[in-house]
């Protein structure tokens, strides 16, 4: 975020007095009392533990009688957290007064200050931005938090590991804003915050979050995006759908569907799935048609996932959100999302992380339903897109906004939904939604409509009126790459391609949004069949500090970013030789992530129709020389013909 969250600045966002970690809340008006009688765990010892959903949360050290205590004959009951976790055992030596400090008074070394009824612990803030698993644009990113009641500042630790055993730097912030005193090293880093009350620093830490630091700082300080890391170990994971599992035929869309999670590590991607999710909707649910990171929807610091099942409930469609944790990915959905009540709607045909649209510190999601019928005479397949907000307990299953496009029959608005990153660098995530560009408006008449609408986020949530639209595209349909900073200025850019075309238009973000016309056009790549299937932000594949662009059909085209924009001379990756049947090699660039944490982004390419529609996914590793010409790992489909892994 590019502005402070204190007072009434930054679009009206205020630093609220809330103590809310992993879904557990304490009344911050007086703090948690740690004065009590008896011998137990020392209140000056380490506070540690986790919330029931796996996120870091404050747990008072447990004494023999189950309560946290501060030894020394002090009075008053100790407040304890029922979440999982234990602290160090120990006791305070010497005679303590009623205030809990030897000789009387509140012990600042234990993070205690005087409250209305005695000594109270200085409570940790709740982290707000940059959202966990996002990428920052500056090597000295602004770190925002919401202060708890009775506190007036923060103390920040930035670490090399989630447990913060290796602290890279520590510093204090002014009110709810803190900025590192020096450039941070590139790569994945973790951070947590402690509350301050005057000169006293609390001993209870916030949840631990993570972000990715680029190799070079942009002139604009903001953050966006999400890297899938469900267990929070700093290594990116890969999530792949197989929507036709159970159909037993490549031509019968009757699949129950599955989604598989593969964990990253220093050695690369583990080829054995750590978690397998099976569609809960039975035959024709097509669970896994689209699957990916949802961002951190509950603020516990771990990436969560969202899965679309557009065939569920006789093509009404559904989407499911599953939570990450230190133990990995949960197998019971936290949230079941639905749209229209009459079908078909194909809700879940497109799903995506929306970033943090309202700046509350929770990741939001967007779901497209392109076959949703409209109202009135032109009611055929107008489409909708639904925005759902995150919270301490996860995604709220009632949409905060329902977006509509150009209301005409056959427009299929919402066929593609995505986060646009932060195009105007105001600290709020933005959205992009597709609309079919040419639609029939009368028996013999057609009218052009914009290919994509962009909606800006804000403190009140996403706007329902698009801030801008992109130029008309060919009627066959379009694809967009969003949330990539191709020229390194700190604004998210967009790339739009057209099915059947052999070029793509680049739109650069700026403080007002996106320019009215394209900044540049990529030249045709003859023989490629056009960028029919996907354009995707390529992360920073070669580690030069600029994000790259990927275009695909039957080959992968890698365009390098630069200060002047994309270099229109792509590296070309061709499919490995295979004896399998029909191949759609670049049907979906599944993910672009740094799997082995070497500082170079890697690319996973899906080939759903390989080997009689069994499907497979191919993993290519990034390096200083660019993307590897051959895959380092091939993930084969294991569900037989028609499974369509990828």
How would you describe this protein?
This protein is mainly beta and 646 residues long. 2% of the residues lie in helices and 32% in strands. Strands 6, 8, 9, 11, 12, 13 and 14 form a 7-stranded mixed sheet that branches. It has a 4-stranded antiparallel sheet with strand order 18-19-20-23, with no helix packed on it. The protein has a 4-stranded antiparallel sheet with strand order 24-25-26-27, with no helix packed on it. Residues 1-99, 473-477 and 527-531 have low confidence and may be disordered.
List the helices and strands and how they pair.
Elements lengths: L8 H4 L6 E3 L2 E3 L85 E4 L2 E4 L4 E4 L4 E3 L6 E4 L6 E7 L7 E8 L2 E2 L8 E11 L2 E6 L3 E5 L9 E2 L13 E5 L15 E5 L12 E4 L11 E6 L8 E6 L2 H4 L2 E5 L1 E2 L2 E2 L5 E3 L12 E6 L8 E6 L14 E5 L12 E3 L13 E5 L8 E5 L3 E3 L5 E3 L3 E4 L12 E2 L8 E7 L8 E6 L5 E4 L1 E2 L2 E2 L5 E3 L11 E4 L11 E4 L3 E4 L11 E3 L14 E6 L8 E6 L2 H4 L2 E5 L12 E4 L10
Parallel strand pairs: 6-13
Antiparallel strand pairs: 1-2, 3-4, 5-7, 6-14, 7-10, 8-9, 8-11, 11-12, 11-13, 15-16, 16-17, 18-19, 19-20, 20-23, 21-22, 24-25, 25-26, 26-27, 28-29, 29-32, 30-31, 32-33, 34-35, 35-36, 36-39, 37-38, 40-41, 41-42, 42-43, 44-45, 45-46, 46-47
